[in-house]
Amino acid sequence: MTVDLGFVSEYAGRPAAHLTRRDVARALLAVPSGQALVAVPDLRRAMLAAGNPLSAAFWDSAKATLAGIENGVATVGDVQRWLEATGTEPILITRGYFVWPEEGERGPVATELHERLVAHLEEHVRIGEIDPDRLVAGDAEAREVYERVQDHWLATPLPDGRVPSSAVGEEVDEELFATWDEEEAFALGELRRVLADLPEPDLPSGELAAAARRLRALLAEPGYPGNVLRACSGLEGEPLPEDDTELWLMVAAGVASPVSDLQDEDEHQFWDLEGELSQEDAALAALCTIHHADWLATVAALARRGPGVLASPERIARLVAESDDIDVDMDDPEDLETTETLFTTVTPLWRELGIVDDRAVLTPLGWWGLPKSLERAWSPE
Predict the structure, then answer these.
(1) What distance, in Å, lies between the first and last C-alpha atoms of the chain?
(2) Count of CB atoms within 10 A of residue 288's CB?
């Protein structure tokens, strides 16, 4: 591959006379840094001959950045800041915490709006409101203007009524929900495959009735763990089911797949990343982090072993790591530790439901109900 003006024009999809700093920077970053670094002098002369010389500040920054990459001292952040200093590269994470999806992961809406923002920034460079040379020099005022232009555009409705930040967010959410649904459907199929080969446990009626009595009292109490179980099961402010089996399965399913957050946003700000999470919010965060594969491996292993098996967080982490039901690599001790930490939140809630006893041992009620609750959690409504 020859890194010349023809390559840059083809990569950017523009003739040489209309190439921007961003076009040249992206093309240089698309090839090995050593090759790009060698090509810079000839490319600069070719741009000058084409009547589009760019600026000395840009070419100096290009050589410095590429040399940093080649020498292994430039960080990802360094490269991103250089790219943004071209003046027409949308900021990856804005001051308003808007985040563009990675280039290869953008859907049609994000791709379209990203291109529109690039064109919008190019116009601001053309009229002189955004100054790339001051940006590359680290001028704080120039950076402020550059960021403000983008924040304003992202929050301003387009002629068709769409607000760019909201439109991109909605598309990302739809893609995440679709992926989540696919994973859940696959996990449900695998769970049913495992259960089909196992005997059906008898319902321990006495244990279920006792657990339901404790659960009704617990759900009526303020604070942890009652508020977490209410949120997980969607019973916050709702009347409890009269049937003990329905109540128990609803709450047990909610632990595996929480249906709502805590409602008191003044007290529990689950989204406040800078604040210290309460016990309740930390519990919900952990429950929402556990993957379908981890739940599948855990419940399948416990269902096969039956009552009396240890279901402590440490043991669950090992069951997940050794499972033949999922395709994961957990050789790293940190992976085991993470799984153990997440299930440290689960086992106290299981104890309240009677799924495990005070020694974290699986009970007959847990053996009967845990697979059913997981199947319920993953089944379409």
Answers:
(1) 54
(2) 13
